Amino acid sequence: MPPYHHGDLRRAVLAAAVDAITEHGPAGVSLRDLARRVGVSHAGPVHHFKDKAGLLTALAAEGFALLADALNATREQTNSFVELGVAYVRFAVRHRAHFEVMFRPDLHHTDDPALTEARERAGAALAGGVEALGEQRTGDRRTAGVAAWSIVHGFATLWNTGNLAPGDDPEELAHRVAAMLFGDDQPVLRASPELQQT
Amino acid sequence: MPPYHHGDLRRAVLAAAVDAITEHGPAGVSLRDLARRVGVSHAGPVHHFKDKAGLLTALAAEGFALLADALNATREQTNSFVELGVAYVRFAVRHRAHFEVMFRPDLHHTDDPALTEARERAGAALAGGVEALGEQRTGDRRTAGVAAWSIVHGFATLWNTGNLAPGDDPEELAHRVAAMLFGDDQPVLRASPELQQT
DNA sequence: CCTGCAATCTTGTCGGTGACAAGTCAGGGG
DNA sequence: CCCCTGACTTGTCACCGACAAGATTGCAGG
């Protein structure tokens, strides 16, 4: 029989949660099922997470930390904003379970300090990448940051919800999209003048 | 006492669902609670929607229909792609409950014909707006469509999850973002050449 | 008129779930 | 050696979704 003390229950439950969410989506996950998967009584996980929301909060925080690391890693390598955007999308696709939980405040304890700290770290990594953009351009920096975040986040979300053609390689398509909007060697998407009126 | 037959239970339950989701998010809604709000026994709604997923599927379909109408309406008025994007964001903010359910395939009966039809109608409205963009430009149409959808969807999602500065007027900010990327009278966001390497 | 039928809604029930309370067990500091 | 704290279990409660069976209503066809 297994020992009374699991040893690393917290880790194990988080890992099981990732599996369960990957299989059935964030809605189809229950603390009791996770406990069963890990081989622990139904109230075991409660001791580590307090709540179901507590579990998902921990998962989201872990996700933001991973995202921050991924972004910082590619920032050290390339300085290319396009590549940074692709890294964001790659994270969302590869760590789908984390990503799906990170932007669902209705599932969190939104005031959790670990969560806020990790989120800010990821935000800083992204904002830092925006710094590398258009120094010559005044179009204010905050708007540029919001635009950049919007496009990569929107792409990632649409991909993960199956709204983009499933035949493609997401990273390749994301690269084309980012290059079209932010790239240097690509023509930039613009409205034809005669149709434009604001 | 209320009559045995409600008269328009389906409508009433959908409306109650919108309220409940607006208050507690899509996770915090139960068929039984909706039944209570409407003044009907706990299994009343089941007859109209079959399932909880059936309810949310109907809500999502209604949402896509409303979105398609909104997009087509502004398309008739302006021909401006920027305005079309703002209309998308406006819909997401004003019909938050619908929007939050529309892109959650894990909550749907994904094969529901009404849902697919409404989604395609909305997709066509958006794609039609992209047609108005850059005729002079070859940067292939599909990539342009994905880029446009990504940016408005990303912005809407980030706003609704509270990740953008809450002090602002979302439509105004969305307008600035869209104008920065797609507008004609605004400088276009580009990477500074020396930092760009793909 | 009235009879039977189908749609609508109710009541009752089952297994599963989240939260909580109280108990049990292991190990390290006094 | 003891006990104290943290880790886990057992037991319970209210709620939820799904299903089955029954009650009620309106209405079509004779």
Question: Which keywords apply here?
Answer:
homodimer; 198 residues; mainly alpha; Arc Repressor Mutant, subunit A; Tetracycline Repressor, domain 2; 2 domains; disordered C terminus; DNA-binding
Shape of chain A: elongated
Runs of chain A in which pLDDT lies below 50 for 5 or more consecutive residues are 185-198
- The DSSP helix count of chain A reads 9
Give the name of the CATH superfamily of the largest domain in chain A: Tetracycline Repressor, domain 2
Alpha-beta classification of chain A: mainly alpha
Could you describe the largest sheet of chain A, including whether it forms a barrel?
none
Q: Indicate the CATH architecture of the largest domain in chain A.
A: Orthogonal Bundle
* DSSP strand count of chain A: 0
Sketch the topology of chain A as an H/E string, one letter per element. HHHHHHHHH
Strand content of chain A: under 5%
Mean pLDDT rating of chain A? 86
Keywords (chains A, B): DNA-binding, Transcription, Transcription regulation
DNA-binding region (chains A, B): 30-49
Domain HTH tetR-type (chains A, B): 7-67
Protein name (chains A, B): TetR/AcrR family transcriptional regulator
